[in-house]
Automatic annotation (TrEMBL):
Protein name, entry field: Probable membrane transporter protein
Membrane topology: Multi-pass membrane protein
InterPro entries with a match to the protein in the record: TM_pro_TauE-like (IPR002781), TSUP (IPR052017)
Family recorded in the similarity comment: Belongs to the 4-toluene sulfonate uptake permease (TSUP) (TC 2.A.102) family.
Key word Nucleotide-binding present: no
Native species: Streptomyces stramineus
Length: 256
């Protein structure tokens, strides 16, 4: 790896760490760069996952204030993310990517629709729960949220681009909470998914240590930067950022 290639990977790591903390989809920064410097797709994907773990941790720490009072959610959703992330990592090495490539743009598109309609849909769901006299789904999201998080985490362990968009759309709709607190929870789930996938890959897959270290350092810096930026965004602006990033992810996946 030349010095210019190393700088490109490092810069991509900073960008990925920043955008991952704000909304997700940092893989859209790093993965193309790793391919451009000559890494095979699977090696690039594995190296990217390993490198982004520290950035996910950095972003979660940056959002620690918004995590207060969410311990029960973290444990419950974290276990779900752990199972899903490990499943996705196994599938990455066991299955061809064509099936995922076909369905992921559709999933992201649906997630963006949910993000845009989330305030209206959340109010409608709240009114329905009040009429039915139920409140459990308000706190924990119900089995529907657990199922959605399981599938999203499996996708995250497999590839992960726009995984954060899926998380935010699901939790933003099914949890009655501030979007910033939901975003903080999303960062913790990303740590779990990338962490378990990275641990699995360490023992069974090939990776490039130079790329891993460059992305790790860059994404750690970006995680702190993303926390400072993301916390200052209003729910409306944050929702707009999610939509823009999601559209970019769809376009890139369709054109690759």
């Amino acid at each position: 790896m030349s010095i210019w290639e190393a700088l490109a990977v490092f810069a991509a790591g900073i960008g990925a760490g920043t955008i991952n903390t704000i909304v997700g989809s940092g893989t859209l920064f790093t993965f193309p760069v790793l391919l451009a410097i000559g890494l095979p797709p699977i090696t690039a994907n594995v190296s990217n996952t390993l490198g982004l773990v520290t950035g996910n941790i950095s972003g979660a720490i940056g959002y620690r204030r918004e995590l207060r009072g969410q311990r029960r959610r973290i444990i419950r959703f974290g276990i779900t993310a752990l199972i899903g992330g490990l499943t996705g990592a196994i599938l990455l090495l066991a299955l061809p990517s064509e099936a995922f490539d076909a369905i992921v743009p559709v999933l992201i598109g649906l997630a963006l629709v949910l993000v845009v309609l989330q305030p209206r849909l959340a109010k409608a769901l709240a009114r329905r729960r009040e009429r039915n006299g139920t409140t459990d789904a308000v706190t924990d999201g119900g089995p529907g949220l657990l199922g959605g998080l399981l599938l999203s985490s499996a996708y995250g362990g497999y590839f992960g681009a726009a995984q954060g968009v899926l998380y935010l759309s699901l939790m933003g709709l099914l949890l009655r909470d501030d979007l910033q607190r939901v975003n903080a929870l999303k960062n913790v789930l990303a740590v779990v998914v990338n962490g378990v996938a990275a641990l699995f890959f360490l023992f069974v897959a090939d990776f490039d240590w130079t790329a891993v270290l460059l992305i790790a350092v860059g994404s750690t810096l970006g995680g702190q930067l993303g926390a400072k930026i993301g916390r200052r965004l209003s729910p409306t602006v944050l929702r707009g950022v999610i939509v823009v990033v999601g559209i970019v992810a769809i376009v890139q996946m369709l054109l690759k």
